Amino acid sequence: MTLARPDTDPELRALLADMPLIPQLTPEVLAQIRQLPPTPVETLLEGRAVDRHEVTVPSPDGARIPLEIFRPTGADRSTSAPCVYWMHGGGMVMGDRFSQIDIPLEWLDRFGAVVISVDYRLAPESTRTTLVDDCYQGLLWVAEHADDLGVDPNRIVVAGTSAGGGLAAGVTLMARDRGGPTIAAQMLIYPMLDHRNNTTSSRQYAGGPGVWTREMNEFGWRSVLGDLPDEDVPSYISPALADDLSGLPTTYVDAGTAEVFRDEDVDYATRIWAAGGQAELHVWAGGFHGFDALYPQARVSAAARRTRTDWLARVLNPATEA
Asked: To the nearest 10°, the Cα dihedral for 49, 50, 51, 55?
C-alpha cells in the first residue's frame, strides 16, 4: 500500500521536474556517480576574499585524513575567530570535503568564521565507526591547533548536512563522552540519524526515483554496517540509538516535510528537550531532501538558509547582560 505524502513546495516541484533522478542506488550506479566531476571549488570562491589550504591529520589506524581550511583573506590570527567544522553529505558513500561547501562559506562571509571541512573515508570501502572516527580526529586536531588557526576554542560549531549531519551528531556524542573537545553548538541539517529506516516518513518516501528514497537510505546504511545486528550498531554512527541525549551543546535541527529523514530528525530534537537540553527545530513545508542545497534560489530554501544563519548569529554572539 502506498502511503499518502505531504506535497512538495510548488516552486521546488517545478525546479525538480528538470532534474534527472536515479531510480535506485546500486554499487554500479554508485561507481558511475563517483566518476562525475565535482563542482570546482574555485567557482564557489569567485568574488570571495578567501584563503584556503589543506592539511592532513593522522588517524589511529595510520590513514591520513584531509582537512580543507578556509579563512577570510587577511584575517588577523591574533584575534580568535569562530570556527565551523563541516561534514559533507552524500549518504556516507559519496561526496568530498567540497560538497555543499557553499553553505558554511556563507558563514565565513557573515561572521568571519574559519571553515574547516573534513574528508572522512567513505563506505563501503570503510565501515562502521571509521567515518565518525575520522571526523572526531579532525576535530581534535582543530581544537589542539586553535591558536595557530586563529580560532576561538570556545566557539567551535560542528555542522553537517544529510550524512554529514548524522556524523556531526555522532562527533558531538563522542566529544561529550570523551571529555572534549569543547563544542559550542551543533547544526544538524536534515541529518541521517537512524539506520533502522522504519519511520512513517521513511515509508512514505519508498519506491520510485527521488533525490533520496528509503531504498537509497537502506543502501547507504548497508554499505556502512553490512550485516551487523541492530544490537551491535554503535550509537556514534547511528545517533538515534543513543540512550542519553543529555549534556549536549545547543542544537539546531531542520528537515523538510517531504523527505525520508523528517520523523527521525523531529524525534532527535524532541529527545534533546526531554533530556533537558536546548534544541531549535524547523521543518520546512514542502521541502524534499537537500532542497536548499540543490535549489538555494527557491523562496523556502532562502528562508531555511537565512534561519540557520540567524540562529548561528545568536550562538556565536550571545546577548550579554548590561
From this structure: 180
